[in-house]
Design a protein that fits this description.
The protein has 256 residues and is an alpha/beta fold. The chain folds into 2 domains: 56 residues, no CATH class; 132 residues, 3-Layer(aba) Sandwich (Rossmann fold), CATH 3.40.50.620. The chain has 9 helices and 7 strands; from the N terminus they run H-H-H-H-E-E-E-H-E-H-E-H-E-H-E-H. Helix 4 runs parallel beside helix 9 and helix 8 packs parallel to helix 9. It is elongated.
């Protein structure tokens, strides 16, 4: 990487959010500090601004995400009665046609699960709803239409009422037990896997759970110089990681 390319990317980050906001706050608190009189407030502001800047870098967001994304993939034995469980990650609604469609992350999870189910001849269960945007029937139609467009090679069923990870596992548990399933291949994003596995361990006791992370946000390689430049993606990934840690803590405190 050349110095000119790094400078180009750095300047681009400095004139667009969130880097622009951090730069403005940095200049503001530096000016207050140099004037004197309110140096404690200025020092605190500088520390907060620098911390927020670091948290918005891909390097720091990667460090936060990496422990969450360390779960290895596993599959059940061939003789077991298995089911692929895909946890949804969000939907959008086409305002013109008034029909829901999967967000990119949900689609990536679903495609991974569909390919896995088709390869091994397992049924697939999609779990996840969004009552504020679509009813259960609309969710069911959305999932089946997506499966057909992706070349469905597995039996697909839908649970379209759950809104949280805990509800995902809670709402599908009766279906899984009634079907006599012994092994569940759990498909979700890598960062979401620890919280999903915790919920599964509490709500699907007696059923063997096999994690199958669908995609990663963190990079296994060491951070490059550009990874220390603030970016919208870095800020978003940090918020994702923090949400997962808070979610894990909340479930352990309030879900027994």
């Amino acid at each position: 990487m050349t110095v000119s390319y790094f400078a180009y990317k750095f300047l681009g980050a400095a004139v667009t959010p969130p880097g622009l906001f951090f730069l403005l706050f940095l200049l503001l608190f530096l000016a207050i500090f140099r004037r004197g009189g309110q140096r404690k407030i200025a020092s605190l502001g500088l520390c907060v601004t620098l911390a927020a800047t670091l948290l918005s870098t891909p390097a720091v967001s990667g460090l936060l995400l990496s422990p969450l994304e360390s779960t290895e993939r596993s599959l059940p034995e061939a003789a077991s009665k298995s089911l692929v469980l895909v946890l949804a990650g969000g939907i959008n609604v086409d305002t013109a046609a008034r029909v829901p469609y999967m967000e990119s992350e949900t689609l990536a999870r679903f495609l991974e699960g569909l390919l896995l189910a088709g390869e091994h001849g397992w049924p697939l269960l999609y779990s996840g709803g969004y009552p504020e945007k679509a009813n259960e029937e609309d969710i069911r139609k959305m999932v089946l239409a997506a499966a057909d467009r992706l070349g469905r090679r597995a039996a697909v069923s839908v649970e379209g009422a759950s809104r949280t990870t805990w509800e995902n596992l809670s709402f599908v548990a009766p279906t899984i037990r009634e079907a006599g399933v012994t092994d569940v291949i759990l498909v979700t994003s890598a960062y979401h896997m620890p919280r999903s596995l915790y919920c599964a361990s509490r709500l699907l006791s007696g059923v063997r759970i096999h994690p199958w992370p669908a995609l990663r946000k963190s990079e296994p390689a060491a951070p490059s110089a550009l990874d220390w430049v603030p970016s919208p993606g870095g800020l978003y990934n940090t918020s994702v990681a923090v949400r997962e840690y808070v979610g894990l803590l909340a479930y352990r405190l309030f879900r027994h």
